[in-house]
Design goal:
Layout lengths: L5 H10 L4 E5 L4 H12 L3 E6 L4 H7 L4 E4 L3 H7 L3 E4 L8 H8 L4 E3 H9 L3 E6 L4 H14 L5 E3 L11 E2 L32 E5 L14 E4 L7 H4 L2 H14 L4 E4 L3 H7 L5 E5 L6 E4 L12 E7 L2 E8 L4 H16 L4 H8 L10 E5 L4 E5 L4 H12 L5 E6 L4 H6 L1 H5 L7 E4 L15 H10 L5 E2 L6 H8 L4 E6 L4 H14 L18 E2 L3 E2 H11 L5 E7 L11 E7 L3 H14 L3 E4 L5 E3 L4 E7 L8 E4 L2 E5 L4 H10 L2 E2 L11 H7 L2 E2 L2 E2 L4 E8 L4 E5 L16 E9 L1 E2 L2 H18 L5 E4 L9 H7 L6 E2 L2 E3 L6 E4 L5 H19 L8 E3 L2
Parallel strand pairs: 1-2, 1-4, 2-3, 4-5, 6-9, 6-10, 7-9, 10-11, 11-12, 12-13, 17-21, 18-19, 18-21, 19-20, 25-28, 26-28, 27-42
Antiparallel strand pairs: 7-8, 13-14, 14-15, 16-17, 22-23, 24-25, 29-30, 30-36, 31-37, 32-33, 34-35, 34-36, 38-41, 39-40, 40-41
Length: 824
């Protein structure tokens, strides 16, 4: 943590007005906002981040040098006067280490933000929930009222030019009444407009930097048991907010509906209360105690000290948003703005990105994206959407951080009561290490134990199609969470809009330095650069990629390098570099029938999950499928086209490439029974095509793909009515769910011996329910080992060996594993 205070940072920047500030993690919304503030204030900016995004593209448009990837030499070349980093940046980041080695001043994001806020009339918006919407609304309203504010909001705001802006003192409006009956800023309320601009800042409490801010005014929305990985307990959270309140120089506007907050603010002589509470100085009143909503609007009345202040409307829905709007109104009124002008200023605000953001609507469904990730936020958000009276509220939720999931497991399990159908996907780690028992499988089990139906979809990449298949006319579909589930929401909306499916998982690129040697004596960082330079910018290349989430068993270590090519040419280039550097490589598909050991995989892991390898095109009675296409997608698209014979693929949780290599089968059918032609690449990067009749296949295998990479296949179907195909698919699905476990697994563990099916043998041996650590022999099907939520690959391997020894000792049968076991 930096020892520099905001005042010292200001002194440093004022002493060197032409110097460069280097931002590590510049693509994050908070740090990219700092870049805009610095540029507006006349400073130079350089920086880096792991991957390009919209925020970085905005900065590039302002002639900043933002590097993709972290490298010590980039920082040294920039010669910065100050280095700033986000909380997501690890201490071992090479640029952080280089800055310390060069004895450069290094500060956290909040320290620089506080320094810039202190240059003006700061207004900080704080609280566990709602501060992004509230700070965005306040900045928007001040802009509408002609105050020309500076602001820094923690999300993109479509109605503002940027999510952060710094207005120089000379640009501030003069403190006089505007002509023509506009907003009068000195005639009502308790305050007068300052000669320097207001600066609206969203102040984050998550990392203990709230005390850095000493604003002129503040809004405090709530306190709650969150970020307990940092604070430890709720008492520490309350102390942080109490310290923040004592740092506020003038007005402190707080919510009287939060009893803890009301107790904290009782000691503050400058505190101004708002809320539904009868004792609030600014009291909210809603007819019939319910927010009247139209398509997307709320109406309410605000009373000030017993007198009606005015009637207000808001395009956002729900009591929490009405409460947040009341906070803004109360502060603006205190600052001297007229109620009618305030009402006009807030009426058209449509919200910040990912806050009740409507992505798509037609006559069948409406699709929304929301950032809510705490149980209290979730309850409030679902109640708000219920006010739109959807036929069903379909919710997809991605928990955010293992620590939050662990501390609030019970609250999460009880917070989705208003959802008519609920999907749960795996936890977004946010750079945290996984905590055993704090994952989505455990959360799904806790929900079911409390009577909450939930469909657990471990892989984020499978979520969109799962929701598509479950959606009905009249549904309101809500994607919820603070992680990368927003990318699935955007892709889902795009697919609904265009009718194009086959969505691929979102990709985030991370580069981590390591001194470990890889390949022919080459430093790992150099090998990474060779890989990165060999492919196009769109191909993802990463180091130390966790692989557990890329398997259906959800166990295993990391890959030295990971590549997801966007073309056959890029795939060939990766193979070329592997050959030149003597790097081993491994091809993985959707991760079914695969067990990766806890030590991970050396060399390069190549995934053909990109859209270019995942397309399914129907031409006549044939399906032209990429190797990365999911088998379920193939089955669904065949059914849509009225082609029968591929229903058996729907229950196999894998890809076309994996099915070709393993000659996958189910329900008495096999992959190569429906294959007419295959396309593949040799390890030198040359592409070949061959008729399926010319390829040698065997039980659970195709020897060709031991030395070649599957790129795709042409499958054939038989014309039939969609009703007949659907009925057969339903029969297969029903049989699958009756005979196969729902928990994470790798599919069948053992090949069937000639004398007895492996599952029946294991059941006869009485091994169902046998456990090793977090791994268990399924009680549904003996040939499945399931991950109860905290299994390791070691647990699974020990259980496999125990089953083999038992079968050998008691029945004289040598079981052979069907699942592929790789790694160290």
């Amino acid at each position: 943590m930096s020892t520099l205070s905001p005042e010292q940072v200001n002194a440093l920047l004022n002493a060197a007005p032409g110097a460069t500030v280097y931002l590590i993690g510049a693509g994050g919304c908070g740090v990219s906002g700092l870049a805009h503030l610095l540029l507006d204030a006349g400073h130079h900016v350089a920086g880096s981040d792991a991957a390009e995004n919209d925020e970085i593209r905005q900065l590039h448009a302002r002639d900043t040098q933002i590097h993709i990837g972290h490298c010590a030499e980039q920082l040294r070349a920039a010669r910065p006067a100050l280095v700033v980093y986000s909380s997501a940046v690890r201490p071992d980041n090479p640029e952080i280490q280089a800055a310390h080695a060069l004895q450069l001043p290094v500060v956290r994001r909040a320290v620089l933000l506080a320094a810039l806020v202190h240059r003006q009339q700061g207004i900080c918006v704080a609280g566990m929930h709602g501060k992004t919407t509230t700070s965005a609304l306040l900045a928007f309203a001040l802009e509408k009222l002609g105050a020309n504010p500076s602001y820094a909001v923690g999300a993109l705001v479509p109605q503002l030019p940027r999510h952060a802006r710094f207005v120089a003192v000379g640009q501030a409006p003069a403190p006089v009444e505007p002509a023509g009956g506009g907003a009068r800023r000195t005639m009502t309320g308790d305050g007068a407009c300052p000669t320097t601009p207001f600066f609206v800042a969203e102040a984050d409490e998550s990392d203990g930097t709230l005390g850095m801010f000493r604003p002129a005014h503040s809004i405090v929305l709530n306190v709650d048991a969150d970020h307990l990985d940092y604070f430890g307990n709720l008492e520490a959270v309350c102390r942080e907010f109490e310290h923040f309140a004592s740092n506020t120089r003038e007005r402190i506007v707080f919510c009287a509906d939060d009893p803890r907050l009301a107790d904290l603010m009782a000691k503050q002589p400058r505190a101004v209360s708002y809320g539904f509470n009868a004792l609030a100085q600014y009291r909210i009143e809603i007819p019939n105690s319910r927010v009247p909503t139209t398509h997307h609007a709320s109406r309410f009345t605000l009373w000030h000290r017993g007198a009606k202040l005015g009637d207000f409307s808001l395009r956002l829905i729900g009591e929490k948003n009405v409460s947040n709007a009341a906070a803004v109104i109360a502060l603006l009124h205190q600052l001297g703005f007229e109620p009618r002008a305030i009402a006009a200023a807030i009426a058209d605000f449509s919200g910040a990105a990912r806050r009740q953001q409507e992505l798509f609507a037609d006559e069948d469904v409406r699709v929304f994206d929301d950032y809510g990730h705490h149980p209290n936020e979730i309850r409030a958000t679902l109640r708000a959407f219920e006010e739109l009276n959807p036929r069903r509220l379909v919710v997809a939720f991605q928990p955010h951080r293992y620590t939050r999931t662990l501390h609030l497991m019970k609250d999460f399990a009880e917070s989705f009561g208003d959802a008519d159908k609920l999907f749960l996907t795996e936890v977004y780690a946010a750079s945290e290490p996984e905590i055993p028992g704090a994952n989505s499988a455990a959360l799904a089990a806790a929900m079911r134990a409390r009577g909450q139906p939930v469909e657990y979809v471990p892989a984020l990449s499978d979520l969109a199609l799962a929701i598509r298949d479950a959606s009905q006319s009249g549904d309101l579909i809500l994607f919820l969470g603070a992680g990368d589930i927003t990318k699935v929401a955007q892709e889902f909306a795009h697919a609904r809009r265009t009718g194009t499916w086959g969505l691929r998982p979102p990709v985030s690129t991370m580069n981590a330095e390591s001194k470990t040697e890889s390949g022919a004596g080459m430093p790992r960082s150099d090998a990474f650069e060779r890989l990165r330079a060999a492919v196009s910018d769109c191909t993802a290349v990463r180091q130390h990629e966790p692989l557990a989430r890329r398997t259906t068993m959800r166990v295993g270590g990391s890959a030295d390098f990971f590549a997801e090519p966007v073309s056959e040419n890029d795939l060939a280039q990766v193979l070329r570099v592997c050959s030149e550097l003597k790097l081993p490589f491994t091809i993985i598909g959707r991760g079914s029938n695969l067990l990766i050991k806890d030590g991970g995989i050396r060399g390069v892991v190549i995934s053909l999950g990109h859209e270019c390898f995942s397309r399914v095109q129907i031409i006549g009675e044939h399906l032209h499928c990429g190797a990365g296409a999911k088998l379920k997608t193939v089955s669904v698209e065949a059914r849509r086209a009225g082609l029968a014979g591929l229903e058996f693929l729907e229950g196999i949780p894998g890809s076309v490439g994996g099915a070709l290599r393993m000659n996958a089968g189910a329900m008495g059918s096999w992959m190569f029974e429906v294959v007419e032609q295959i396309r593949f690449m040799d390890f030198s990067g040359h592409v070949h095509e061959r008729k399926a009749s010319e390829v040698n296949v065997e039980y659970r295998g195709c020897p060709l793909f031991k030395t070649h990479i599957a790129l795709g296949a042409v499958l054939h179907g038989t014309p039939a009515s969609k009703e007949v195909i659907q009925e057969r698919a339903n029969q297969f699905n029903a049989k699958r769910w009756e005979t196969q476990p729902a928990q994470p697994s790798a599919g069948c563990i053992f090949k069937n011996p000639t004398t007895v099916p492996a599952g029946k043998l294991i059941e006869e041996l009485g091994l169902k329910g046998t456990k090793r650590g977090g791994a268990m022999v399924s009680t549904v099907h003996g040939n499945f080992i399931v991950n109860e939520g905290n299994a390791t690959a070691k647990d699974v391997l020990e259980l496999i060996e125990f089953i083999k020894q038992t079968a050998r000792a008691r029945r004289g049968i040598e079981l052979e594993t069907e699942v592929e076991i790789i790694g160290e």
